[in-house]
Amino acid sequence: MSTALVIEDCLTDMTVFTIYLQQGGLNVLTAQSGEEALAKIDSHQPDVIILDIVLPGCSGFEVCRDLKSEARTKDIPIILCSTKGGKMDEFWGLKQGADVYLTKPVDQEELVRVVKQLLKQ
Predict the structure, then answer these.
(1) If you ran DSSP here, which 8-state letter would residue 84 be given?
(2) Domains, the chain, ranges and CATH?
Protein backbone atom coordinates (compact mmCIF):
# COMPACT_ATOMS: atom_id res chain seq x y z
CA MET A 1 0.00 0.00 0.00
CA SER A 2 1.34 3.44 -0.95
CA THR A 3 2.01 6.12 1.64
CA ALA A 4 1.18 9.80 1.31
CA LEU A 5 2.70 12.54 3.46
CA VAL A 6 0.36 15.48 4.06
CA ILE A 7 2.24 18.63 5.08
CA GLU A 8 -0.40 21.07 6.28
CA ASP A 9 -0.56 23.46 9.24
CA CYS A 10 -4.38 23.79 9.23
CA LEU A 11 -5.77 20.86 11.23
CA THR A 12 -9.09 20.98 9.37
CA ASP A 13 -7.43 20.70 5.95
CA MET A 14 -5.05 18.03 7.25
CA THR A 15 -7.97 15.97 8.56
CA VAL A 16 -9.94 16.34 5.31
CA PHE A 17 -6.94 15.37 3.14
CA THR A 18 -6.17 12.42 5.42
CA ILE A 19 -9.74 11.11 5.17
CA TYR A 20 -9.80 11.57 1.38
CA LEU A 21 -6.52 9.71 0.93
CA GLN A 22 -7.39 6.91 3.37
CA GLN A 23 -10.69 6.39 1.58
CA GLY A 24 -8.63 6.22 -1.63
CA GLY A 25 -6.64 3.32 -0.17
CA LEU A 26 -3.45 5.06 0.98
CA ASN A 27 -1.54 5.10 4.24
CA VAL A 28 -1.18 8.68 5.46
CA LEU A 29 1.56 10.39 7.45
CA THR A 30 1.16 14.01 8.55
CA ALA A 31 3.36 16.97 9.41
CA GLN A 32 2.45 20.52 10.41
CA SER A 33 5.65 22.26 9.27
CA GLY A 34 8.36 21.88 6.69
CA GLU A 35 10.91 21.04 9.34
CA GLU A 36 8.71 18.30 10.82
CA ALA A 37 8.10 16.93 7.33
CA LEU A 38 11.79 16.76 6.48
CA ALA A 39 12.45 14.88 9.74
CA LYS A 40 9.62 12.41 8.97
CA ILE A 41 10.90 11.84 5.44
CA ASP A 42 14.27 10.82 6.91
CA SER A 43 12.61 7.96 8.81
CA HIS A 44 9.59 7.14 6.58
CA GLN A 45 10.04 8.00 2.91
CA PRO A 46 6.56 8.53 1.39
CA ASP A 47 5.46 7.61 -2.13
CA VAL A 48 3.74 10.97 -2.70
CA ILE A 49 3.61 14.33 -0.87
CA ILE A 50 0.71 16.77 -0.55
CA LEU A 51 2.27 20.08 0.44
CA ASP A 52 0.73 23.37 1.57
CA ILE A 53 2.59 26.55 0.62
CA VAL A 54 1.97 28.73 3.67
CA LEU A 55 3.61 26.92 6.58
CA PRO A 56 5.29 28.00 9.82
CA GLY A 57 9.06 28.23 9.40
CA CYS A 58 10.09 27.39 5.85
CA SER A 59 7.48 27.70 3.11
CA GLY A 60 6.12 24.88 1.00
CA PHE A 61 8.05 26.34 -1.93
CA GLU A 62 11.29 25.92 0.06
CA VAL A 63 10.39 22.38 1.14
CA CYS A 64 9.57 21.43 -2.45
CA ARG A 65 12.82 22.91 -3.76
CA ASP A 66 14.85 21.14 -1.04
CA LEU A 67 13.22 17.75 -1.70
CA LYS A 68 13.64 18.02 -5.47
CA SER A 69 17.33 18.92 -5.09
CA GLU A 70 18.16 15.85 -2.97
CA ALA A 71 19.04 12.64 -4.83
CA ARG A 72 17.15 10.51 -2.27
CA THR A 73 13.87 12.46 -2.55
CA LYS A 74 13.92 14.04 -6.02
CA ASP A 75 11.65 11.38 -7.54
CA ILE A 76 8.88 11.62 -4.93
CA PRO A 77 5.89 13.28 -6.63
CA ILE A 78 4.82 16.52 -4.93
CA ILE A 79 1.36 18.07 -5.13
CA LEU A 80 1.37 21.69 -4.00
CA CYS A 81 -2.01 22.50 -2.53
CA SER A 82 -2.83 26.07 -1.55
CA THR A 83 -5.46 28.77 -1.30
CA LYS A 84 -3.10 30.83 -3.47
CA GLY A 85 -4.85 30.35 -6.80
CA GLY A 86 -3.12 32.88 -9.02
CA LYS A 87 -1.35 31.91 -12.25
CA MET A 88 1.93 33.27 -10.87
CA ASP A 89 1.61 31.12 -7.73
CA GLU A 90 1.03 28.03 -9.87
CA PHE A 91 3.91 28.96 -12.20
CA TRP A 92 6.27 29.49 -9.27
CA GLY A 93 5.19 26.24 -7.58
CA LEU A 94 5.82 24.19 -10.70
CA LYS A 95 9.14 25.99 -11.19
CA GLN A 96 10.18 24.81 -7.69
CA GLY A 97 9.71 21.22 -8.86
CA ALA A 98 6.11 20.40 -7.94
CA ASP A 99 4.47 17.83 -10.18
CA VAL A 100 0.95 19.22 -9.74
CA TYR A 101 -0.56 22.43 -8.33
CA LEU A 102 -4.07 22.25 -6.85
CA THR A 103 -6.07 25.15 -5.44
CA LYS A 104 -8.07 24.78 -2.22
CA PRO A 105 -10.77 23.79 -1.61
CA VAL A 106 -9.71 20.54 -3.24
CA ASP A 107 -12.28 18.12 -4.62
CA GLN A 108 -11.94 14.64 -3.08
CA GLU A 109 -12.19 12.79 -6.39
CA GLU A 110 -9.67 15.10 -8.05
CA LEU A 111 -7.13 14.71 -5.23
CA VAL A 112 -7.36 10.91 -5.18
CA ARG A 113 -7.26 10.72 -9.00
CA VAL A 114 -4.17 12.95 -9.18
CA VAL A 115 -2.38 11.02 -6.42
CA LYS A 116 -3.07 7.65 -8.06
CA GLN A 117 -2.01 8.99 -11.45
CA LEU A 118 1.31 10.20 -10.00
CA LEU A 119 1.87 6.87 -8.24
CA LYS A 120 1.52 5.00 -11.56
CA GLN A 121 4.28 7.05 -13.21
Answers:
(1) -
(2) 3-120 (3.40.50.2300)
